[in-house]
Recover the amino acids of this structure.
């Protein structure tokens, strides 16, 4: 057995995440490890909390990164906020709504599903109806930015409806944080989780969350213990809180260096400018795709700039397209999931990856491979279209 | 708000972990991020599994890193193997036995505690008695290397007793993997978890686990769903298994680069040589400590070479000692926990950190600070003692 050190190929990551990581973040990952209770580390933790509050636009004291990927951030919200027997309205319009249902049920809750077609946003009227028919519901959960379809739902409106019916909300912001407008305090979101590897340009493995005072009250007044010891926020706060820090688990030191650097860069750019940059490059990408004759799955008003679901042209094997892009161009884009498998490809423009170089490279590569696969597209237009979009925008 | 990039101080990590990380591992952490389903990444995952099998000395197919710190590895074993209502014998002789009890209870199990004094190993006779008195027990759980006290228990014997009574065992090997002899197949351990940040010289954040076929049978035949979606091994195996890989959660790509490099280094050195190196430097450290007149908490036969619990000399404020070592020498050592707070300090010699430079530096620094604090120790002996131990050994 002679296994050599692993030297990964250098890819351009334009799938649903992880997205391209900024070199500054990668460099930060390699800084010398220090202890998880080192005074210098605790200063850094406080800075991360402060910068996450900025990213989430909140003053919530409980705004921290969970020491595991986004799925664990989701689970943190559900196992802390759902008590056995409680009814939770789950809005599902893609993969992640289904995962929320699993989380509710495994936490002993009862999930009432509000289903919308994949590729469309959550319908506020359906939520309103579900709440009228389930007056004993305690929580509403929905996905702000569905990574599986590229759809944005109206988080502000859905939260407002939930509150009117006396429910707290849990919001999945894995793909939205840093990429589109998200205002936790202004919209009065109660609990929200995200991922480090999407629009924050950081490596995967951490899940920023933010929990309101109202939600903390519910957690503190639970009748049963949180079923997960690792994700129990009552315990996690002993380490991430404001008083003397007590050991709970050993924090992932170096990945937190990376997150700190990514958040420092977000501050330097400015949150609104980051949102605008995602929009800007989306316009360029869309322009190029449409010039080629490709169309997008989601209607314009509900489209996520950072995750574009593109219809696969007739006769094209999407798996072949994707593997050629990877092998010949080192370009990763995403596949469709579930009912959309084979029907869409997903192009991410997230964080550092939302830049003109990536947009133009992606358009050129797709045009080249599709032409070679004899797909029915317009050729020779991709770069021109992208360039003019860049100038116009 | 102007938060600058974080440049950590360069510490020498000789506490209970994280331990010093090898520069090769840090460098690996900064390699370019690729996708979690990239064919190149899947090759690397397979290599990690193979190298973890070597480290654990097992052929178990389910030998993988959990995408979160050691506490999540512990929780993975308990939530998958404990079904509601099942009785679990938990041997506790330190902090981590107590944490196991929490895990059993939160998984709906009934914990029967076998208590031994902190600083002593688990008594096999007590386990035998507990099993005789609890014929309905399904599982036995114990800690191989108690990080809170520096005690080693006889994992082989405890496993044998458990099996004789028809129980499966769950073993905590967070601090033992790579540091002392551990033979999962030979000792017939059913489920075991460790941490990346101890004797593997890697950064914290990952938890290698290994699960036997017998334990997998139990998991597959559960009557209830595993309560954690994120840690459900039935789902995780869809991603880490041998067939076509399905997305479960987004793996922490760069930390896995680090683990791959750390495991490659373990292979290069050889597992037995790594165990011997830990023993070698422990002898040097012990020699120096004893020459100074300091004594160790744990009796020689049960001592962990990689984690030394040293009695605080009379009249010495251990917090002051530790903070002076950190501030004046950039040297981190650990505090006592629970009933041992203030009574012991913990000196780790783990992974890459188990080297002569660290041993001598630590002895010199402790001697210097204790002398300055007017502690009743012999002075002028530390380095001589360490040097002679190094030569003798």
């Amino acid at each position: 057995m002679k296994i050599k050190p692993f030297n990964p190929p250098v890819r351009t990551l334009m799938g649903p995440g992880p997205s391209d990581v900024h070199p500054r973040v990668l460099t930060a990952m390699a800084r010398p490890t220090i202890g998880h209770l080192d005074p210098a580390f605790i200063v850094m933790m406080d800075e991360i909390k402060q910068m996450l509050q900025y990213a989430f636009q909140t003053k919530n004291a409980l705004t921290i990164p969970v020491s595991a990927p986004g799925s664990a951030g989701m689970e943190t919200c559900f196992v802390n906020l759902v008590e056995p027997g409680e009814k939770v309205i789950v809005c599902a319009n893609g993969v992640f709504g289904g995962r929320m249902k699993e989380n509710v049920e495994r936490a002993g809750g009862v999930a009432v599903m509000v289903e919308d077609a994949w590729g469309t946003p959550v319908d506020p009227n359906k939520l309103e109806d579900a709440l009228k028919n389930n007056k004993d519901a305690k929580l509403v959960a929905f996905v702000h930015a569905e990574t599986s379809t590229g759809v944005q739902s109206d988080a502000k409106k859905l939260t407002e409806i939930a509150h009117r019916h006396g429910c707290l909300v849990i919001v999945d912001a894995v793909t939205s944080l840093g990429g589109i407008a998200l205002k936790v305090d202004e919209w009065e979101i109660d609990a929200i989780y995200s991922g480090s590897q999407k629009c924050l340009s950081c490596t995967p493995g951490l899940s920023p969350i933010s929990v309101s005072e109202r939600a903390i009250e519910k957690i503190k007044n639970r009748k049963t213990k949180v079923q997960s010891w690792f994700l129990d926020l009552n315990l996690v706060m002993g380490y991430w809180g404001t008083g003397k820090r007590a050991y709970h688990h050993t924090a992932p030191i170096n990945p937190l260096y990376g997150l700190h650097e990514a958040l420092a860069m977000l501050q330097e750019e400015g949150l609104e400018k980051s949102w605008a940059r995602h929009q800007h490059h989306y316009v360029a990408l869309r322009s190029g795709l449409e010039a080629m004759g490709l169309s997008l799955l989601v209607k314009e008003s509900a489209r996520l700039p950072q995750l574009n679901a593109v219809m696969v042209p007739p006769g094209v094997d999407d798996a072949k397209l994707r593997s050629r892009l990877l092998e010949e161009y080192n370009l990763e884009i995403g596949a469709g999931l579930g009912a959309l498998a084979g029907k869409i490809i997903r192009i991410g423009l997230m964080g550092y990856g939302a830049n003109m170089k990536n947009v133009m490279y992606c358009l050129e590569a797709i045009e080249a491979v599709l032409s070679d696969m004899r797909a029915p597209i317009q050729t020779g237009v991709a770069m021109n279209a992208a360039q003019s979009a860049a100038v116009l925008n």
About this structure: The CA atoms of residues 76 and 231 of chain A lie 5 Å apart.
